[in-house]
Amino acid sequence: MSALLEVNDVSVQFPAQSGPIRALDGVSIHVDPGETLALVGESGCGKSTLARAILGLVTPNSGSMRFRGAPLEPLGTPSRRALSSKLQMVFQDPDASLNPRLTIGASIAEPLELGAARVGRAERRERVVQLLSDVGLDAALVGRYPHELSGGQKQRVSIARALAVRPELIVCDEAISALDVSIQAQVLNLLVDLRERFSLAYLFISHDLRVVRHVSHRVAVMYLGQIVETGTTRDVFAEPRHPYTRALLAAAPSLNPNQPTLPARARGELPSPANPPSGCYFHTRCPEVFERCSREKPLLYPVRGGRGASRCFLSDERK
Amino acid sequence: MSDSDDPKAVAAKPLLDVRGLTTEFHGDDRVVRAVDGVSFTVGKGEAVGIVGESGSGKSATALSILGLLPERATTAGSVVFDGADVFGLSPAALRSLRGRRIAMVFQDPMTSLNPYLRIEDQLAEVAVLHLRLSRRDAKARAVALLDRVGIADAKSRMRSYPHELSGGMRQRVMIAMALLCDPELLILDEPTTALDVTIQAQILELLRELRRERGLSIILITHDLGIVLGLCDRVMVMYAGRIVESSPVVPLFRRPLHPYTLALLASVPRLDGSAEGRLASIGGMPPRLDQGPFRECTFAPRCVFVHDACRTRDPDLVVVEPPGDAVSAVGDARDASARARRCVLPAERMP
Fold first, then answer.
1. Does the complex come out with an ipTM higher than 0.90?
2. What's the pTM?
3. Domains of chain B (ranges plus CATH)?
């Protein structure tokens, strides 16, 4: 099967007074049609920069990105415009992505007024009503404004807007992080239903491993601009190979009274991406650090018979 | 979980005793009852969690206790701290109580720290004001506490400005500041919500240690049930301004007694158990708090167990499992080991 999205060895640097900040450091991922790849990590790990690069909001310094085999070009080029109907996004804060002066109906209809997805007025109205029902909202909300809706409803509107152009891939950047738990579950279930119904693929960016476990097929864990572990969701949660993945899993508070929350495994603070540590970027916080880690940079070694990879010397199975 | 005193002794003389706390915010054309008849106690050395979603009244409860509400809010009920009626205190006495004996840590340390002052000046100011220490002693105390909360190289960090610190370090500074006057009660409002998970794990470990070390009483306000399990003895679940369930922590996680608690626990994605299938979600939305008084159970419109009796009146908070006692209609829900809930459904009808 050919990948829907391929990202190959992409690096992004931001200029800063103290020298360039390496936000992405040789990142490669792929997303297959109908698949959900989760991108997990903490602040500064580069997960949002990667999303922005894929969406054309940031131009990589090196590397290549392809969608259905065709190169992803910068925003504003004709090929990117043609792609906009295939590639959509949902961000964390619906208030930042919905125009407060547009009614819900107008917001959802807007992508249908332009470019390749353009349709006539009557069909637009029909599609908006259908989209509202697809995301579980009452058609009566058409004439309302964003401020009249709850956070969960607004996020559903953002999803409807992304769906309007019938995309193949939706990038969800912390799309449910700002919602209350009970609403989070509603929106998460909605995303899974829509994926099945419309054969969507998601690049699902989140800091919350508990959520990721329920929604994704595969996981890529990022730390300071690098991928440190990849694998199927089942493998990564059952048998995490990188010490950072294990620290992330240990840090999630337990809901089981028979299984107390584990002691914190990662020591100290997250280093600044402007000044990453020598050798393995995680060695300053790693509970399993040894002498080689501060001297040499580990590669992304294949693990679990090639079904995953881990950037840790302890995962290097070559003899 | 609990290493506090004998529950009976705790109940006899709680450090904090809140009764019938009701807080209303007055807008131009509506009144929002954010907190509605909340009663609970916090014993010496006890940690109580208040859990709820946005608008459940958990933060408003804490702000009411501290007398930190905006001008357009009114409060009824009583708050007694170590025998003193908090609402009856003069503004000066209240300020002194807040800084010295009750300390608070909020979600976002940036809103509590002055961006123009070095860490040492902010910490020393508190110690000079409340403890009447000399500047030198105040600084020494501040360094010792920064060191205690895990800030490496505390002495040189004292010279930093808040923006030079990471989010985790700023929250450690806030905890150090809260501990400066050796408070008896620490109120934590979403203390780790803005932090990365690995840093959150460190802060929670620190709070557990401090609790053990100092015998602090704690009120922890959070939306994350897992954090409560890791830190608290007792938990109160709030919904639409009221306590809907109150229980020692472990029994609540084993067998929730209110349908909302049950639904809330089921809707949190977890690392144990099955990852297959849909998450249980709670349909609908919480009621608008400017539309009371409610004639039915406020959770009824979203409850999967709803039946006719739920629609006829709004149930009271009733003790269902008093320690070593038969089920009684009216017990003291404020008892540390009691399990109470606001629901008319027989408990055996819940799974």
1. no
2. 0.89
3. 7-101+183-271+279-349 (3.40.50.300), 109-182 (no CATH)
